[in-house]
Amino acid sequence: MERACERLNLRAALKRVRQNAGKPGIDGMTVEELPEHLRVHWPHLREELLAGRYQPQPVRRVAIPKAGGGERELGIPTVLDRFIQQALLQVLQPLFDPTFSNASYGFRPGRRAHDAVRRAQAYVQEGRSVVVDIDLEKFFDRVNHDILMGRLVKRIADRRVLRLIRRYLNAGVLANGVVIERHEGTPQGGPLSPLMANVLLDEVDKELERRGHAFVRYADDLNVYVRSQRAGERVMASLRKLFGKLKLRVNENKSKVTRATKAKFLGFSFWVAKGRVIRRRVAPEAIERLKERVRELTRRSAGRSLAQMCKPLGTYLLGWKAYFQLTEAPGALADIDGWVRHRLRAVQLKHWKRGRVIYRELVARGMPAGAARKVAGNSRRWWHNSAMALNRALPNTFFNQLGVPLLAS
C-alpha cells in the first residue's frame, strides 16, 4: 500500500485517469475536478488507505447496447475510486503479469488484440483447422469473489490491499436511486477489473498449457485450435468442467466447435487464399456493426448539417480504420468506402429536399444540366438518386475535406 501511495505512482495514476476520461460516478465528480479534490483531501485519504479503513463508494450502473443485441451493464466507479484503483494496478500489474500465459493478450502491457489475431492465424496455418470458440456467459457479472480472493491471497501479502480489493468487489451498485448489494462480479468500468479477470482465468490458461493445447485468450474471449472436430468436442467438454470449477458458465448459444475459417475472433475471420495460405479479413459481423453505427451517426432526421454529421463520423471511421488495417483483404474496405459515400450523398440530397434546390446545387457543383434534372425529378428517392453519377457534384474529395477518411487508402 505504501508503494501505491508513493508520489510518482500517484502522479502516473492521475495522468492515466485523466487520459481515459470517462463519465462521472455517483458523486458527479468529473476527471477535471479530481486534481483539486486531491489537493484538499489527499492527506486524509492517504491516512485511511494506509490504515486499511478506506471505503469505496458504490458504482453507477450504465447499460450500453451489445453488438449482437441486448445490453451490457457497466459499473462506473467514482473518479476518485478509479484513481485509487489505477494506483493499485500500477503496483500489482508488474507482480502478476510476468507469470501469466504467453497465450493471454487482453489488457496486458505491450500486447495488443492484433498480436492475438496473428497468433490465431499462425495456428490455423499450421493445420489446426478446427476452433473451439468459447463465450463465457456474463463473465464480469459472474466472477466469484471468494474464488478470486483465494487466488489473490496466494500472491499478495499486504492485508490492507486484500481488504481494499474485497471492498471494491463488494461495493454496491446504484440503480434507480437504490444501492444494491453485490455478492459476485467485478464492475467493468474499473481499472482493476481486467487484471482481476486475468488472475482468475490464468488457471484455465495454465491447464490448457499443461495439456499442450494451442490457444489464444483475450480477456474472456478464448479460442482453442485443434486438428479435428472430434478433438474439438473433447476440448469443449473439458473446458465446461474447468470453468465450472471457477463457477463460470459457458454460453452454449454462442460457444461452438467449428471450422476455423467459419469463426470470427476479435473482429476478424480467416480465409484460404491461393497456395493454401491463411489470410485475415474483417469479419462480416464487424462490417455490419460498422454500418449500424454509420446509420446512427448519419440519421437524416437529426436536424444537423452534413458537416456536423461528418465530424463524429470521421472520428469513428479513423478509429475503425486504425484497428482493421490488419486486414489482408482490402477490397472489402473499398466496398465500405463506396457504401459510406453513397449514404452521405443521400443525406445531402435529403437536406436539399426540393427538386429545384437539388437541381440548382448539382449544376453549381459541375453536374450536367440533364443529369441534374433527372435527379431532381426523382427528388424523394434519396438512396436511388445518390447512386446516379453524383460523384462529380459530390466527389470523394468533398467528403475528405469534411473529415471523412477513406478506409482503403
Helix content: 40-55%
The coarse silhouette is: flat
Please tell me how large the radius of gyration is.
26 Å
> How many DSSP E strands?
11
Secondary-structure map:
Blueprint: H1 7-20, H2 34-51, E1 59-65, E2 71-76, H3 79-96, H4 113-125, E3 130-135, H5 139-142, H6 145-153, H7 159-170, E4 173-175, E5 178-180, H8 192-210, E6 214-218, E7 221-226, H9 229-245, E8 256-259, E9 264-265, E10 268-273, E11 277-282, H10 284-297, H11 306-324, H12 331-352, H13 355-364, H14 369-377, H15 382-385, H16 396-401
Parallel strand pairs: 1-4
Antiparallel strand pairs: 1-2, 3-7, 3-8, 4-5, 6-7, 9-10, 10-11
Helix pairs in contact: 1-3, 6-7, 13-14
How would you describe the overall organization of this protein?
With 409 residues, this protein is of the alpha+beta class. Helices cover 51% and strands 13% of the residues. It is built from 16 helices and 11 strands. The chain has helices at 7-20, 34-51, 79-96, 113-125, 139-142, 145-153, 159-170, 192-210, 229-245, 284-297, 306-324, 331-352, 355-364, 369-377, 382-385, 396-401; strands at residues 59-65, 71-76, 130-135, 173-175, 178-180, 214-218, 221-226, 256-259, 264-265, 268-273, 277-282. The strands form 3 sheets. The chain has a 4-stranded mixed sheet with strand order 2-1-4-5, with no helix packed on it. Strand 1 (59-65) and strand 2 form a beta hairpin. Helix 1 (7-20) crosses helix 3 (79-96) and helix 6 (145-153) packs antiparallel against helix 7. It is flat. 32% of the residues are buried.
